[in-house]
């Protein structure tokens, strides 16, 4: 498939391809070309694409693309190709470096905790690339003064708390006030890599006990969003996550709330999506949502 889709050919820039995603895109393309469903597998294994077709279908991510969460599915199938350089499947450190997540010691911390490579790759694929996180932090802090200290709290932190890490690239200085992670091994890595002042063992505990913050990072797990809409309504877990976010906002009174999600629910389940109390724009759901402080707060 790499040869037939011209993904083994050096280009002018390096690129990253998730082969699981690329296969799905080519299947969809063949279906649009009229290939019957029962012939799709055979057609997939025999169809050659030109470089132009491969690029038009968006099989690869390029430097400068604003990636969202890459996806955990088949997270060992990330292929990279660079001009005159290495071609092959990415190791965990290479994937972390490409996503900008290897600078703060997250991968070494995971290794010290005994995390296997396949699991680490899955954790990385569930994370937000640094460029997107930094862009989101830039939007959130656009009205802040340079050097101003912001307290940052996180729900649904994941192993690397990537969206909160993006504030390191903003014009403000930051205090990682709190994070939440229920998985003990992930929490161990998160604590070693990011050192939040308080690490809550659950999102529910954080929503009930968190201190005030200037920025709240609150991106629910993608797998629950992707499963939303089953049975003709929004999946209960998604609405529960939204309620927890709202409860935390009421308690923490942040100046900005940052939520990152893929937009599959909006495009494929519009009726269910309308039940969720937030709005999105663009191919990648990325908004800094302003939250007003009470009168007399000085903010």
Task: Label this structure with key terms.
6-stranded mixed β-sheet, 16% strand, 3-stranded antiparallel β-sheet, 299 residues
Which strand order do you get reading across the main beta sheet? 6-5-4-7-8-9
Total beta strand runs: 9
Distance between the termini: 55 Å
Radius of gyration: 20 Å
Low-confidence segments, given as residue ranges, are: 263-269, 277-299
State the major sheet: 6 strands, mixed
Give the helix tally.
14
Shape: elongated
Q: Helix coverage percent of residues?
A: 25-40%
Which range does the strand content fall in? 15-25%
The computed structural class is: alpha/beta
The topology string of helices and strands comes to EHHHEEHHHHEHEHEHEHHEHHE
Q: Mean pLDDT, rounded to whole units?
A: 78
Describe it.
There is one protein chain. With 299 residues, the protein is an alpha/beta fold. Helix content is 37%, strand content 16%. The protein contains 14 helices and 9 strands. The protein has helices at 19-32, 40-44, 51-56, 92-98, 106-112, 117-125, 130-140, 162-165, 184-194, 203-209, 222-226, 236-252, 264-268, 270-273; strands at 15-18, 78-81, 87-89, 149-155, 173-180, 198-200, 215-218, 256-262, 284-290. The strands form 2 sheets. Strands 6-5-4-7-8-9 form a 6-stranded mixed β-sheet, with helices on both faces. It has a 3-stranded antiparallel β-sheet with strand order 1-2-3. α8 (162-165) links the parallel β4 (149-155) and β5 (173-180). α10 runs parallel beside α12 (236-252). The longest helix has 17 residues, at 236-252. It is elongated, with a radius of gyration of 20 Å. It starts with 14 loop residues before the first strand and ends in a 9-residue tail after the last strand.
């Amino acid at each position: 498939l790499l040869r037939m889709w011209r993904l083994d050919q050096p280009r002018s820039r390096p690129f990253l391809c998730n082969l699981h995603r690329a296969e799905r895109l080519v299947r969809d393309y063949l279906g649009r070309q009229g290939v019957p469903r029962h012939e799709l597998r055979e057609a997939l294994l025999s169809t050659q694409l030109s470089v132009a077709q491969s690029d038009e279908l968006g099989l690869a991510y390029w430097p400068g693309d604003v990636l969202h969460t890459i996806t955990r599915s088949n997270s060992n199938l990330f292929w990279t190709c660079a001009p005159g350089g290495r071609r092959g499947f990415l190791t965990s450190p290479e994937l972390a470096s490409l996503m900008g997540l290897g600078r703060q010691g997250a991968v070494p911390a995971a290794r010290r905790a005994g995390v296997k490579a396949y699991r680490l790759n899955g954790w990385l694929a569930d994370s937000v690339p640094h460029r997107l996180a930094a862009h989101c932090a830039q939007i959130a802090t656009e009205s802040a003064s340079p050097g101003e200290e912001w307290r940052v709290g996180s729900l649904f932190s994941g192993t690397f708390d990537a969206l909160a890490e993006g504030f390191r690239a903003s014009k403000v200085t930051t205090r990682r006030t709190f994070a939440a992670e229920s998985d003990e091994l992930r929490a161990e890595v998160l604590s070693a890599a990011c050192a939040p002042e308080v690490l809550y063992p659950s999102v529910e505990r954080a929503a009930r006990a968190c201190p005030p913050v200037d920025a709240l990072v609150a991106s629910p797990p993608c797998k629950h969003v992707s499963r939303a809409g089953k049975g003709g309504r929004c999946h209960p877990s998604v609405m529960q996550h939204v309620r927890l976010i709202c409860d935390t906002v009421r308690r923490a009174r942040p100046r900005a709330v940052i939520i990152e999600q893929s937009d599959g629910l909006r495009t494929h389940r519009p009726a269910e999506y309308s039940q969720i109390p937030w709005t999105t724009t663009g191919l990648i759901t990325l908004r800094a949502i302003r939250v007003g402080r009470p009168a007399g707060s000085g903010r």
